[in-house]
């Protein structure tokens, strides 16, 4: 019996060695480990999903315009429309395109991934210097694998670049401020170098997305100062170094304003800042509580874990945050203020979007990690450790089996949707909605996007993580339990997010249709698109079509023979006599488009007598 027990113990020590080694590596070299993990999880999948969201296609169109026209100051979308965002993201995209000799989905999203990786590296270093490696590593995991951060780190938008500089300014200032607090001093004793460095970063933040990031950073810095020292300390924050934040973007704003005149001022200064905050034409008003409704989606899956731990502590009548050091309390309070003061400010604006929560997520990760570290520290040393491990073993068993069942059911549904006949699709469309079924149907195309070995490796890694999670709970091994739980949470979340993005991308992209139109329309022949001038819904098409087109308002008459692109619903509203002069060449669009939403490429062959 003892021989079998000894053999089992040796096997267990062998099995347990990977999580122990991983834990030691992370705690000993947190910045290097976070850098490697970020690269492994973010970069390989950047180009596998086609560009389909208007928000990233819009920026891609501007980069294409720089590459085609050479205008580095104010590249106009389609040669006439002033872009909605400042220039920094587009400059970086242009440099990447020039160095890689191409510009596609991967190159469009690479600036966001680079910004995310850079910020995570300094984020971990900042937290390690204050609260230690454990808080730093857990904050890194929470931030990287939060839905809002993970999604936008793989999205070709300006938001992650703004986070790098605006939140980098907060970290820079907090690092200097904490050193002064350790000496019993405050903001009045903070040297001007920290203010200058923070202001320089805020200047680049303005050049990335306008003044939003700068305002959020200043509000966070002010809130932390008031919390630590009181309202009187606010006057110590008024330093001349903040003017650097204005000097950095000023040359570009001056040159762009000279090129764009009143149109640039109306779009980038008034609309994107004043109108978006107070509301007006072109802004969809959201209620004050909008971010409370959508906060959970941006902080998944960790918000569920934090909430579950808080409920357990409350039910058992145990105090929260009972073992924090002074440094951990500073990190917790700063993170909490960073997140909730920012949410309050953003809630005051009329135009709200979930992506605006992105620069607040580092604060959420800081506060959550300190809360969980405190709970785990007191959980390990408490008297009922064994009983709690038994509870965790049951939770691991139920959670692991449930997760595996979900993966199996998803695989079955994926295969079924891939082979379902069209007659059944019509039935599903009537009962579940055309767009939902089209998106799920797109899972059949995921295999074309994701390599088979990657899907197989994901399944194996998720299964191994569940095994470590369960065995760690049964054997009361903290390293294995934590390794398995964190690995399964991160891996399964990563797989679901990327598979979901792949399916949505296949259903929502204009890529295939744009390629078809490109083949039908020679570069010598102009193409006129029937759409409103400020309609951005076709930017996903223009990103891949990559040619200038003429825009015709749907209410204006068509008087010139030539090639046109219009929605089927618009064509059907035209007089039958006029439609006889239309020669349809191609019909297409996105997989989710209903028949009336699809686009028709046609040639108008008659003269002005038959025109509208």
Summarize the structure.
By secondary structure, this protein is mainly α. Helices cover 67% and strands 4% of the residues. Strands 2-1-3-5-4 form a 5-stranded mixed β-sheet.
Q: Would you mind describing this structure in some detail?
A:
The protein has 3 domains: about 20-380, no CATH class; about 395-510, no CATH class; about 510-610, no CATH class. The protein contains 26 helices and 5 strands. The protein has helices at about 1-30, 30-40, 55-70, 90-100, 105-130, 135-145, 145-150, 160-180, 190-210, 210-230, 245, 250-280, 290-300, 300-315, 325-345, 360-380, 385-420, 420-430, 435-440, 445-450, 450-475, 480-510, 510-520, 540-545, 570, 575-580; strands spanning about 525-530, 550, 560-565, 580-590, 600-605. α19 crosses α22 (about 480-510). The model has no long low-confidence stretch (mean pLDDT about 85).
Attribute tags:
mainly alpha, 67% helix, 612 residues, globular
Query: What count of structural domains?
Result: 3
Helix content: 55-70%
Q: Report the C-alpha radius of gyration, rounded.
A: 27 Å
How large is the count of helical segments? 26
Task: Using the alpha-carbon principal axes, give the shape.
Answer: globular
Intertermini distance: 93 Å
Strand order of the largest sheet: 2-1-3-5-4
List the helices and strands and how they pair.
Elements: H1 2-28, H2 30-42, H3 54-69, H4 88-100, H5 105-131, H6 133-144, H7 147-152, H8 159-182, H9 192-209, H10 212-229, H11 244-247, H12 250-278, H13 290-299, H14 302-315, H15 326-347, H16 361-381, H17 385-419, H18 422-432, H19 434-441, H20 446-449, H21 452-474, H22 478-508, H23 511-520, E1 527-530, H24 539-545, E2 550-552, E3 562-567, H25 568-572, H26 576-579, E4 582-588, E5 599-604
